[in-house]
Design goal:
The protein contains seven helices and eight strands. It has 220 residues and is an alpha/beta fold.
Length: 220
């Protein structure tokens, strides 16, 4: 893994990058990130785990006056974060969040990364420790097309999980029901839930028809 990299926090006197990448225009966020941004609101401290190229944090900073950090391991994504002026720490989430104090953030986000974590319970507990609320999104393995693929003797491949069984980073696939059972075990209270298909909420048979689940939770 590359050495940890921390982009300067410009609100605390750090030097801004010389050339900042363009901010994400409103409405151009990935659908689950747009929903997450609405749930977070404005003027709060946010931690984005597996933040990718920093599009959510850049949007929250520019459109919602939020402050915070991202954690990302990929060199290319960290580079784009720095260009955008996003505060980013280059680190492996599997190592935990020891660099952050208890209740340091108002919201902690883990978007479409939960299914790739080895220590699923560990990262959820850490989210609950450092944040007042957690938000996760993940592909719904219980979608009816996935069930049909399994009945046909094949592992599912879909736009949400576009990998073959032998090269997938997804190791802990789950359904909304599975997540809710784990959340209860960990003592979380689910405060919001959205099940999406083609970027829209699903009301009828959501567990079978939704391709993506988004949850907000707090600790009892």
């Amino acid at each position: 893994m590359s050495a940890p990299l921390l982009a300067a926090d410009n609100r605390n006197g750090g030097a801004a990058p010389r050339a900042r990448a363009a901010a994400v225009p409103p409405g151009n966020l990935r659908p689950d990130l747009s929903l997450i941004a609405d749930w977070i609101g404005g003027d709060v401290r946010v931690l984005d785990l597996g933040c990718g190229d920093g599009e959510l944090l850049a949007y929250l900073r520019d459109a919602r006056a939020c402050r915070g950090y991202g954690v990302e391991i990929a060199d290319a994504h960290v580079h784009v974060c720095v260009q955008r002026g996003v505060n980013v720490i280059q680190a492996d989430l599997e190592s935990g969040l020891r660099m952050f104090a208890d209740r340091m953030f108002d919201a902690v986000v883990l978007s479409q990364t939960l299914q790739a974590m080895h220590d699923t319970e560990g990262i959820l507990r850490e989210m609950a420790r450092v944040g007042r609320q957690g938000i996760v999104s993940f592909p719904n393995f219980g979608h009816w097309r996935h069930m049909l693929a399994l009945l046909g003797g094949r592992m599912p491949v879909s736009p949400q999980m576009p990998y073959q069984w032998y090269d997938t980073p997804n190791i802990h696939l789950c359904t909304p029901g599975d997540f809710e059972i784990l959340a209860a075990k960990l003592g979380f209270v689910i405060t919001r839930r959205a099940l999406l298909a083609e970027n829209h909420p699903v009301k009828w048979l959501p567990s079978l028809r939704a391709t993506l689940a988004v949850y907000q939770f707090e600790v009892r």
